[in-house]
């Protein structure tokens, strides 16, 4: 009995089946119970031997069942663990990584350059007050310069800023000159009421630069812009300043860089002139200093406003500014960076 059943017990790998075997062998209707129950029919001298034997068989079966149950449970746990194991050597599902937008890359790069020269990066407001976007920049309400910078008005005195120069007006007001010079750049979005086409966008980017201290000269401006031009377009670049007009700078200049496609000789990129116009700049107008409460007899400085969109178009030969804003991944992924 014991051997045959031990074989059955050890063959099963199923807890349910094992339980059935247990009930069948050790239960109330099982052979052991039956033997023990039949004891009363036996001669008294036979009872101890039969009883002892039956108990021994019962204990053996019990132990065998217990051991098997333990084995099965262990097997199941092992199986479960094996199923849950992650094979770290399997190739994963590729994750589509985004990348910094090409305009963002240009801005990041300029920030690095200027921070290296001791400038701080200042955020402004895209929704701006008329007085910071215009009035404190020497552009009173009836000034014709407002025509070129028509914008979106959000209320009587609130508008979408047309130029990052608005940040100049704010920081000039808040800067504590007793603690040292003001040197800032301020990149961000600006807005104009323009109809979008290949070279116009109703929103684009600018980066303002402003340095105000004692004894700042136009040579400082020129040196700074030359450093920027060479950083962005190559060490062989030269720059040229042409007289221009902005209400908040005097004198004002338009800044050209020597063409990087044709070695200064002339090609379509520079309209066959050898020079490419890249930005506007000038010496901060005394009125701007004064309306910010800065003593224009003691302090002076320079400012410039450069367009990251324009830089990116020139640098990468992009001929339509709308490409930057229409989210065509085939276009944007050309500027994908590592890391
Ligand atoms: N804010 C001017 C523009 O939008 C650019 C500029 C900035 C010119 C600073 C001079 C000084 O055209």
Automatic annotation (TrEMBL):
One Pfam family linked to the record: tRNA-synt_2d
GO MF, any single term: transferase activity
CC cofactor note: Binds 2 magnesium ions per tetramer.
GO biological process: phenylalanyl-tRNA aminoacylation
InterPro entries in the cross-refs: aa-tRNA-synth_II, aa-tRNA-synth_II/BPL/LPL, Phe-tRNA-synth_IIc_asu, Phe-tRNA_ligase_II_N, Phe_tRNA_ligase_alpha1_bac, Phenylalanyl-tRNA_Synthase, tRNA-bd_arm
Keywords from the UniProt entry: Aminoacyl-tRNA synthetase, ATP-binding, Cytoplasm, Ligase, Magnesium, Metal-binding, Nucleotide-binding, Protein biosynthesis
Keyword Cytoplasm listed: yes
Cofactor: Mg(2+)
Matching PANTHER family: PHENYLALANINE--TRNA LIGASE, MITOCHONDRIAL (PTHR11538:SF41), PHENYLALANYL-TRNA SYNTHETASE (PTHR11538)
Catalyzed reactions: tRNA(Phe) + L-phenylalanine + ATP = L-phenylalanyl-tRNA(Phe) + AMP + diphosphate + H(+)
Protein name, per record: Phenylalanine--tRNA ligase alpha subunit
Source organism phylogeny: Bacteria, Bacillati, Bacillota, Bacilli, Lactobacillales
Residue numbers binding Mg(2+): 250
Residue ranges annotated for the Aminoacyl-transfer RNA synthetases class-II family profile domain, each copy included: 110-314
Organism field: Lacticaseibacillus pantheris DSM 15945 = JCM 12539 = NBRC 106106
Enzyme nomenclature, EC number: 6.1.1.20
A GO cellular component annotation in the UniProt record: cytoplasm
């Amino acid at each position: 009995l014991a051997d045959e059943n031990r074989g059955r017990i050890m063959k099963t790998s199923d807890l349910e089946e094992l339980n059935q075997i247990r009930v069948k062998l050790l239960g109330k209707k099982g052979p052991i119970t039956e033997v023990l129950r039949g004891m009363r029919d036996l001669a008294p001298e036979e009872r101890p031997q039969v009883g002892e034997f039956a108990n021994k068989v019962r204990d053996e079966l019990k132990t065998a069942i217990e051991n098997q149950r333990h084995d099965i449970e262990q097997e199941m746990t092992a199986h479960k663990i094996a199923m849950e194991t992650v094979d770290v050597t399997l190739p994963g599902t590729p994750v589509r990584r985004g990348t910094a937008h090409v305009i963002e890359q240009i801005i990041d790069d300029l920030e690095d350059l200027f921070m290296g020269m001791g400038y701080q990066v200042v955020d402004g407001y895209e929704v701006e007050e008329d007085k910071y976007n215009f009035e404190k920049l020497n552009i009173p309400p009836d000034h014709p310069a407002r025509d070129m910078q028509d914008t979106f008005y959000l209320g009587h005195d609130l508008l979408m800023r047309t130029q990052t120069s608005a940040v100049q007006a704010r920081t000039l007001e808040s800067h504590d000159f007793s603690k040292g010079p003001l040197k800032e750049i301020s990149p961000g979005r600006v807005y104009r009421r323009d109809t979008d086409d290949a070279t116009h966008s109703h929103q684009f980017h600018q980066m303002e630069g402003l340095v105000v201290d004692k004894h700042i000269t136009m040579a400082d401006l020129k040196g700074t812009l030359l450093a920027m031009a060479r950083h962005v377009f190559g060490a062989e670049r030269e720059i040229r300043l042409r007289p221009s007009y902005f209400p908040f700078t005097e004198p004002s200049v338009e800044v050209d860089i020597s063409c990087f496609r044709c070695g200064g000789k002339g090609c379509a990129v520079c309209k066959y002139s050898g020079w490419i116009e890249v930005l506007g700049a000038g010496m901060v107008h005394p009125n701007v200093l004064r309306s910010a409460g800065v003593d224009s007899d003691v302090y002076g400085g320079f400012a410039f406003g450069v367009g990251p969109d324009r830089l990116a178009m020139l640098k990468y030969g992009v001929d339509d500014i709308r490409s930057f804003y229409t989210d065509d991944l085939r276009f944007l992924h050309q500027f994908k960076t590592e890391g």
